[in-house]
Amino acid sequence: MTTSAAAFAFPPRRRAERLSVAVVAELVELVVTGQLAEGELLPPEGPLSEHFGVSRTVIRESVKSLEEKGLLIVTQGRGTQVARSGSWNMLDPIVLSVLIDNDESLGILDELTIVRGNLESAMAGAVAARHTQEGLTRIVHALEVMREQQQESDSFRQADVVFHLTVMELSGNRLAENIAKRLYLRALESNRFHGMGYENAFQSTLDEHSRILEAITRQDVAAAEDAMREHILSSWQRRRFETS
Amino acid sequence: MTASREAPIKGLPTPSRRRRPANLASAITAELVERIVREVYPPGTALPPEPALGEEFAVSRTVVREAVKSLQEKGLVQVRQGAGTIVTAPVVWDMLDEAVLRATIATDGSAAILDDLVVTRRVLESDMANVAARVAGAGVVEALGALVDRMDELVDDHLAYAECDRAFHDVIMLASGNRLARGVVRSLESQVVNTARYMGRPERSLCVASNRGHRRIYERVAAHDPDGAAEAMFTHITEAWLVRRGGPGDPERLRR
């Protein structure tokens, strides 16, 4: 319960900001799922403000935010149009979330898995090329934890994530690490993305991780790259069939 | 006429006044982003409190709050009840955000961050070239051929060349159908096209060498040779960067 005094003290802008967050989310969803088609005109501010039950200011602020995400084009005199999907900022956190939530029809997780597979493969190669003994010990340890957690799918999954994040961190490629990690963690929030229900899930995951570790240990760059890419792509294929 | 669109709505500030705080806030955001990236405020420490920031920049608390909110959206700070606004670890920053990437590149004296960028771009674009070679129809092949021919004519005009260069890469990325991979590359690229250290000297010989790489990619895509196209893209991006790249650091990491 909020006391009436606290409610009264709450600055009104905050309320407008929160409202605009909700309107932005809803508008992004309408555009990204194609309910508002590319090239289509957005209804004028008046009807929109009525539809969402918010002020015109909130509508204007929200439209501006969608414009920044590349989803809308505001043209003086011609109104506001849905932009072509080629200019959408797919990596904007809200746009990406909506894409992932609607993966069944949009197939974004396939694309995300390919991006991850490529980036993590380059990073695994970098770790194979150069690593310290201490770094190697961390990867070995991460794999051991996975082995110990085979009976417990939640802990196993966590250990799996730790293994991947460790390799990324050791690569020293701050940009690739940052991008891959953000995509990976966001995908993990989606139920469609993980699943250990398929046959031999634990064993095949462990085998593939061991192969990555072996290649890194013997400093075989090409093998480390291949093993990581292969693991990420094929485990998604297995999970994908499980969910569909 | 735009007068009716811009007319102030009763009870709201006029458009010009409405715009000012937004610009102020984004200027302050940019300054704070830079300080965070330069570790004037290191990860784990608190930003100065809102009133202090407001005083330093001579702006209202509303403006400061807006700037802090934008830092939060970029993943640079976390607002914790009681502890204040804490700078987060670099790994959770949104590195593809314009301001964050710009400040990171500006702060990095070595070419290390640009090397990272090239490695990242290279692996994604090679894979997209692979897919493009598999799926490209006649239209795509024709467009690539036309761009390569055009670039041969533009080797003395580096600005026009650079524009065709970007178009060439984009045709391949679009053909691959991977919207997310294209999004990553375009975000990375948009921040470096204005960076002299990345673009290198505008020299004819560099354009000539770069377009030899483009022609090789085009030929492999036209031949529907996925591995050849990926390899050609990989080599093109690596070599084009190595001749532009100066400065300290270890270009060895770019080799495979």
Q: What can you tell me about this protein's structure?
A:
The complex is a heterodimer of chains A (244) and B (256). Chain A contains twelve helices and two strands, in the order ααααββαααααααα. Chain A is mostly helical and 244 residues long. Chain A has two domains: 4-86, Winged helix-like DNA-binding domain superfamily/Winged helix DNA-binding domain (Arc Repressor Mutant, subunit A); 102-243, GntR ligand-binding domain-like (Four Helix Bundle (Hemerythrin (Met), subunit A)), CATH 1.20.120.530. In chain A, strands 1-2 form a two-stranded antiparallel sheet. In chain A, strand 1 (72-75) and strand 2 (79-82) form a beta hairpin. The longest helix of chain A has 23 residues, at 221-243. Chain A is elongated and about 65 Å long. The two termini of chain A are 43 Å apart. By secondary structure, chain B is mostly helical. Chain B has two domains: 3-92, Orthogonal Bundle (Arc Repressor Mutant, subunit A); 111-254, Up-down Bundle (Four Helix Bundle (Hemerythrin (Met), subunit A)). Chain B is 68% helix and 3% strand. Chain B contains twelve helices and two strands. Chain B has helices at residues 3-6, 15-37, 50-57, 61-73, 98-107, 112-135, 138-153, 158-176, 179-192, 196-199, 204-222, 226-244, and strands spanning 77-80, 84-87. In chain B, helix 5 packs across helix 9 (179-192) and helix 6 packs antiparallel against helix 9. Chain B is elongated, with a radius of gyration of 23 Å. Mean pLDDT of chain B is 86; it is low at 1-19. Chains A and B meet through helix 7 and helix 10 of A and helix 4, helix 6 and helix 9 of B.
